[in-house]
Amino acid sequence: MNMKKPLINTLLIAGLAFSAPLWAKTDKPVLSDSQQAASDQAIARQQGKQNAMLEAINENVVAGFAKVQEAARLLTQEGKEKEAIAALEAATAKFDIALTAKPDLSLVPIDSRVAIAELITTPDLIADAADTAVDLLKDGKLQAARKLLLPLRDEMVTETVLLPMETYPEAIKLATAELIKGDKEKALSILDEAFNTFVVMRSVLPLSLLRAEAFIIEAAKLDKEKDKDKAIKLVEAAQQQLEVAVLLGYADEKSRAYKDLQDLAKDLRKEIDGPNAVEKLYFRLKQGLRKLIGEESRQKTVESGK
């Protein structure tokens, strides 16, 4: 369930609604048709996982918050205090049900957004853009540099709004009590302060790393003898995506994880062309990529409240 209420929308960063076109075009496609298909499928799978995050949400918490939103809207109208009180009491009832069923509820997800900015380009083009931007900055042409650098994003951004069940239900009870006493302004103030305790978790997943993983998975499916050239091209494409991740700032080329992955990719490239089995190298490379993806997309708290 994905709530699309005005209050929640104010918590989610407007920049999530982006869709970046290809930043730089080359004379020939950066990815082959099959590689592009593998990339698209990997991104779609990951987006599906992110969208499924709210499928296991606490329905009572979501229903309770919906009632609070209803009360907030009613309080913007004259003479709707009784209806607002009823809505807040209904919210409390929902929160009580949720807490009775699970007393240790803490931060509960109530909304989430996923936005994708896909950039298909080469390491050389990124490096050229960065050098040009530096020159522009030296010449004091900040806006020109900004225009050049802004599209350099290749990521899936997920932001999830979390309701703090340890404090929010009590705040709603306090607001209800003030409203019953006739202090509408105090009730609104409590609701506003409670809303400011919401937490937004932000996760940035580098698509270049996701692509590299997808290419290695596809290469591992191929017959070493019959599809040698295709497997080699997939491994080389994975290496290029690792370089893209570094140049875009999603990975550190000096890190042990990155160096190990590049070494494994080089070894795999040689083994595909040689007499030895490659299954273990594929496995190790996939494991390393999955670990790096996890490290680079850890969730971070970006803000609380409005």
Task: Detail the topology: elements first, then pairings.
Layout lengths: L5 H6 L21 H19 L7 H16 L6 H21 L5 E11 L5 H16 L3 H8 L5 E10 L3 H13 L3 H12 L3 E8 H15 L6 H20 L8 H17 L6 H18 L3 E5 L2
Antiparallel strand pairs: 1-2, 2-3, 3-4
Helix pairs in contact: 2-9, 3-4, 4-7, 5-6, 7-8, 9-10, 9-12, 10-11, 11-12
Brief write-up:
The protein has helices spanning 6-11, 33-51, 59-74, 81-101, 123-138, 142-149, 168-180, 184-195, 207-221, 228-247, 256-272, 279-296, and strands spanning 107-117, 155-164, 199-206, 300-304. With 306 residues, it is α+β, with helices and mostly antiparallel strands.
Q: What report would you give on this structure?
A:
With 306 residues, the chain is of the alpha+beta class. It has 3 domains: 1-12 and 53-111 and 164-197, Up-down Bundle (Four Helix Bundle (Hemerythrin (Met), subunit A)); 124-149; 207-296, no CATH class. The protein is 59% helix and 11% strand. It is built from 12 helices and 4 strands; from the N terminus they run H-H-H-H-E-H-H-E-H-H-E-H-H-H-H-E. The protein has helices at 6-11, 33-51, 59-74, 81-101, 123-138, 142-149, 168-180, 184-195, 207-221, 228-247, 256-272, 279-296; strands at residues 107-117, 155-164, 199-206, 300-304. Strands 1-2-3-4 form a 4-stranded antiparallel β-sheet. The longest helix is centred in the N-terminal third of the chain and has 21 residues, at 81-101. Mean pLDDT is 83; it is low at 1-24.
